[in-house]
Amino acid sequence: MKLLLLPALSASLLLFAIAPAAAHDRAESGEQTIEISATAEIGVVRSLFHDIQIGEDGYRFDYVQEGGQELLLPFFRFEADALMKGRHEFALLYQPLTLTTETRVDNDGGILIDDVVFADDSPLDLQYGFDFYRGTYRYRIINQPHMTFALGGALQIRNASIIFDGYREDDDGRLVEARTISQDLGPVPVISTAFRRSWESGRFFEATLDGFYAPVRYLNLRDVDVIGWLYDVALRVGTPLYEDSEVYLSLRFLGGGADGTAAERTRWTQSQSTPRYTWNNLNLAALSLGVRL
User: What is the rounded CA–CA span in Å between residue 284 and residue 229?
Assistant: First the structure.
């Protein structure tokens, strides 16, 4: 967890250092044509429901009930935005999302993850890494002084790393270290919407919805028989802080998953080279405080 805090705090300091200058970086030709802002959020996240199965005969592992994700974990989010000609919204997002927990196996006969049977009553260290990057474009269909609604699309790059690190029994019944690793890097198309309502006082309400469901191959930009889905819903209430800056409270629901058999693995960091069936269903809730400059 300390390893996560250091880069997050460093990124926050860099963001706030460049944001005041960026916020006033405008190209003008008779009227303002571009506005640039930067946003950072810090808070807590908790898994509402999260399970995974790797392999056709693999154990359906519940991260909340069995993996220690019933706790509150740190949450960070960093975004840069640009508004062009009052209607064209562009955004670049970095969302670190690595959940690291520790538990013990408590199942007669152990649990089968990928091709490893982790022994009953043995320690198990877990890492569920799902950091992602997202570039978004939206067009403001409604563009009134105190209300806007924008619709568009995005391309998200997932950077997944799922690790089970524990012990198995060898042929002599002794516990030996064992590990399974599943990693994936790839693009995900996203549909994006954003709504904002503000008042004379400067207080505002915002709602954003980003999501996609790919029931067949090619829709998820991959030539594999995997059904994929994701959603990212946020509700925010906020108020002006000073000059052009704002502070807000955000409630976010974030999740996604996959169901199917992926392509053959070719790297040493993967536990198996043959294609494996995977079921993965992640559902999170995050409460955070955000600042926009």
Answer: 14
